[in-house]
Amino acid sequence: MFNRGKIALRSLTLTYLGLLLIIPALVITQDGLRAGVNGLLRQVTQPVAWQALMLTLWTAAVMVVINTIMGTLTAYVLVRYHFPGKVLLNALVDLPLAIPTLVTGVMLVVLYGPQQALGAWLDQTLGWRIIFAPPGIILALLFITFPFVVRTVQPVLLDLDRAQEDAAATLGAGAWTIFRRVTLPPLLAPLTSGALLSFARAIGEFGAIVIVAGNIPFYSQTAAVYVLGEVESENRLGASAMSVVMLIIALGLIG
Question: Considering the entire predicted model, what is its pTM?
């Protein structure tokens, strides 16, 4: 009876995963490859498609560098320091996961839009155009993926034995040396995991990007927005081909 229960539970889980994840991935892969590998490459290497893919990758890479640093610092502050408002700040870290990404895009447009005071000042004074430009894409990705690094590093910091840090301090090591040689090494694995999850999430982001980027080909059109354009243009092969490439990149990062 117990064995039958285990088999039923395992079968239910595998069926659910198959219907929810595996079959859709296989279907889009088959559709993207229906003209063969060469056909897929032709679709993806068209100038507008290639530019969209490259924009997606480099903006995601910039975001990962910034969020890895700031996410680690945020997790360290939340774990090691006590201050007024800490509970609220800890809750706010998860805010990007709780609100629709379209709302994120609207918030950034309201704050940094060219018709807004801050956005106009940055554009006219410093020459920094945020919205409808790559910086807006990076800002949106920073907001959306911020919790990934914080929430992967924070539990490891909580579980770290501080005896080694205290011993290093007793021997005369400075705060930076202690962090670099004692605290940081155990964090490398969760840091890498959080960074890769952030990158994979950024590749497929659509809701916020379609608001802040402006969908300008060869300038602010990302791969996800390009897919929508190809669907609307009834070029299903182009949409599926780009989707397959994004799927491969994401699976390669989190696999």
Answer: 0.88
CA–CA gap between residue 246 and residue 201 (Å, rounded): 11
Q: How many CB atoms lie within 10 A of CB 111?
A: 14
pLDDT 10s digits, 4-25: 778 888 888 989 998 988 899 9
Q: SS3 of 22, please? A: helix
- The whole-angstrom separation of Cα 165 and Cα 90 is 24
Spatial contact of 67 and 191, defined as CB atoms under 8 Å apart: no
At 165, the amino acid letter reads E
DSSP 187: G
Phi first, then psi: give them for residue 68, nearest 5 degrees.
-65, -45
Nearest one of 21, 198, 205 to 100, comparing CA atoms:
205
Output the average pLDDT for the chain.
89
User: How many helices, marked H, and strands, marked E, lie in the chain?
Assistant: 15, 0
